[in-house]
Amino acid sequence: MQILDNINQTVRSDLQVSIKKGSKVSIAAACFSIYAYQELKKQLDSIDELRFIFTSPTFIQEKIPKEKREFYIPRLNRERSLYGTDFEIKLRNELTQKAIAKECANWVRQKVTFKSNVTQEQMMGFLTVNESTYMPINGFTTVDLGCERGNNAYYPVQKTESYENGRYFLKLFEELWNDEKKLQNVTEIVLDSISTAYRENSPDFIYFFTLYNIFNEFLEDISEDVLPNEATGFKQSKIWNLLYNFQKDAVLAIINKLEKYNGCILADSVGLGKTFTALAVIKYYENRNKSVLVLCPKKLSENWNTYKGNYINNPIAEDRLRYDVLYHTDLSREHGKSNGIDLDRLNWGNYDLVVIDESHNFRNGGEISGEDAKENRYLKLMNKVIRAGVRTKVLMLSATPVNNRFIDLKNQLALAYEGDSTQINEKLDTSTSIDEIFRRAQKAFNVWSRLPAEERTTDALLKMLDFDFFEVLDSVTIARSRRHIEKYYDTTDIGKFPERLKPISLRPCLTDLGDAINYNQIYELLISLNLSIYTPTYYIMSSRLSKYEDLTHNKGTSLTQKGREEGIRRLMSINLLKRLESSVYAFRLTIDRVYQLIQSTIETIHAYQSGEQILDLQELSDADEFDLDDQNTDYFSVGRKIKIDLSDMDYLSWLQDLEKDAENLQLLSLMIGDITPEHDTKLQTLLNLVREKQEHPINPGNRKIIIFTAFSDTADYLYQQVAPFVKQNFELNTAEVTGTVDGKTTIPHLRADLNTVLTCFSPISKGRDILMPGSTAELDILIATDCISEGQNLQDCDYLINYDIHWNPVRIIQRFGRIDRIGSRNQVIQLVNFWPDMDLDEYINLKSRVETRMKISVLTSTGDDDPINAEEKGDLEYRRQQLKRLQEEVVDIEEMSSGISIMDLGLNEFRLDLLEYMKHHHDVETTPHGMHAVVPAREDAPAGAIFVLRNVNDSVNVDHRNRIHPFYMVYIGMDGEILCDYLNPKQMLDTIRLLCRGKTEPISDLCRKFNQETDDDRNMAEMSELLSEAVNSIIDVKEESDIDSLFKSGGTTALLSQVSGLDDFELICFLVVK
To answer: Which of 226, 570, 785, 961 has the fewest C-beta atoms under 10 angstroms from its C-beta?
Structure first.
């Protein structure tokens, strides 16, 4: 008898002596590793036979269902140890697994039989060679052979000869071997398993294998409750089958988020069909018998009503959707009817799901004060709909959920957790509360926005935001940009986006009349206006103020009458500017209206003698004067007409101010009186453009043009001028749509409601043949205000003109989104912008001057002394950059929004990808680690390797920088340059997906080439070198971010963890990019 201590004398060295040519070897052990075979390869290749018994059930045909995970996991580990146990990671990281597995499989075919214990009885492990026995042997791995230490305190093995133990073990083995009740032959299955380690893998499989490893905990977490329940049959619905692949992904993700977190923001880019995605979600909930409310801006209600109505042009009529549609503004109403619903009797609290279209209208959160507290829309929604009655889920749709404050996002999310952050904190996997997370994010953003322009990159922002923030976004938002869809989805069934031509920028002067006025002179006069007509309360004598006290507080809103008047005055002065930029015609109308108003007030003051004259203030509630964004402010929805007694006013000062304004306005009116349409250079430029487009269409045969303006007055003017021009010259028909009244068209007897007009303008995308069978009515020129700038699909058209530049750059992109849509039939599309006739910087400064001047007068009344704060300065600077860019190119909205794109952040689609895959394939569960596939390089993905690693001893991520810890992915070029580091998992997974997705067969010529270069994977030195470089990069990046954290508030991460190198990582799989 001899004791081998496995330190000085190892089992391996003893076996190298005792195994001779022709030996018979029998092993009973828990597992078998190909690396143990490699250690004794020379001896084992020469034996006669090897019989192996797995002492616990391994590789057997399952009788117990897989659900009993507690039995399943250890068994899976035993089977996996074929390719090396946890302590053989080092060997696996040498990347020679494929070559070893191939040799081992050949040897098994010739010499080995495997059987497995099928009972639940314990069997002890031992090994016999000829007449010698070694025991105990736990497994046949490099640890048991004494090559590795493993995690054993001691592992002595006793070697006895058969004469010492009366051939006991030999007999025992024979008995067992022949007992068919206890053992089952598993040789074939073992062989299959070993051969998976050297098969060529398809890139597609490696992609899913990566996802499976990174996200499989997610699979276990998923309870049936939060996943879309297919039994509802929503996948058989009409709407589901109309969706494109990326929309279906979104629907499943939204349902998952609504179930788990109670809310979700869908922020896909303009033109990606958010409405349809939402309709499929609504269908899912309606199938579960839930009641749904859609809240949308009034201008989009027609769309939503169509999809639920029994109409011929409703493509999904057979789904019989039954949701209610109300407008955002209805939240402030108590009585009356809206969209056929009686608001008096409506049970607001009884909706299970609220879908809020254009949810950014709610980004400013709630406001309330005073005794009979009047709540704003946001609070009404929160209290009437969401908190009251049944538990309400909230789905928000918006292409621009973030303006330039993260708080916008938080206010929208708060709707989902009823404003009570404890509700969501429990569900989020974050270390701090949601309020704290947003506070930090805003702080980081503020720091970022003060960086010099060249350093202010999205990447820089991503690095500054902390891990938890991404976690929140990942949990509750879905955002894909157009580029993302084009890159990562198969778009054959979707069709292409049209190509955007470089925008045309035009700067016509005001008029061609020689001695006439120019823009700058008008601006100077405008800036001198006082507009005190809008601020009468300002002139109430202080001794009489108490009399009007209750007037000055509009029953509880935080907006005082004074503040409201200031607001309207400020809006009006900016509005005059905007209208001048829009058209001389609109400008003149407004000047004349203001002049009339001032004149009648002056007359009232003159007529005042006895002190009985009450000034009945004309309310400025003619909101049509303003563009849609301004109409949306609260100044028009609160407050009532006020009566002020002139004897309480310092009416003489007021009279002076009014007369001065009247004089200036009269002067302005005279100055522009000569500019008739013939001399309106801007209008003439437009007519020339129209002529040019008709004579040289940019897509063969396409004659359509959309002309956008912010004001309905300008739209009226253009219609009067353009319609006869195109009718005479080109026999084309024109239509005008503005939000306020029915449209106009030049086709006699054609109904001019919004839907008919749009259907005749864009007959293919709007389905004219179904809606108006037999009709050939066709409109080619459409003049519109922003009432159609959101949510309409007009892609038959390929030419869009902005007749006035909107002050909010996002609006311009939204307008363009009407024709810049997925599946367009046009090859190219053109955007034309009219700019004021001045230098852009001058123009921006002018705007800021008007805004500042108006603010100063506001501030004198509020006592705040900083006329324009840093945030607004930043905002102006930002607008300037955006407008500059718009002169050069058409930008995507997500690039506009000042660097905050929530596109770059979410990992959810990968989880859903995996989920879908796991429904039909389980092969990823048993696949060995260390596999690879070879994929072709691309322009945006140069040659190199992508390694997916797992940190084994949890020593790396104590600092929470890596969102998918313990997994680390590194993309390294052939020259050793790191192309993408582990702190950017979204970009990494996107790249892997791009390289692999859909390639379901190995790319044989690339594999052949790679195998030749590496001598069939025996010589992996180059890859090995890249792997250790990749691991070093993880350690470097970690140290770099540690050093950064030394200089940041919030503590350092530098002292939290050490990583020593390759042994801390296990290679999960890798991609060779050739």
So the answer is: 226
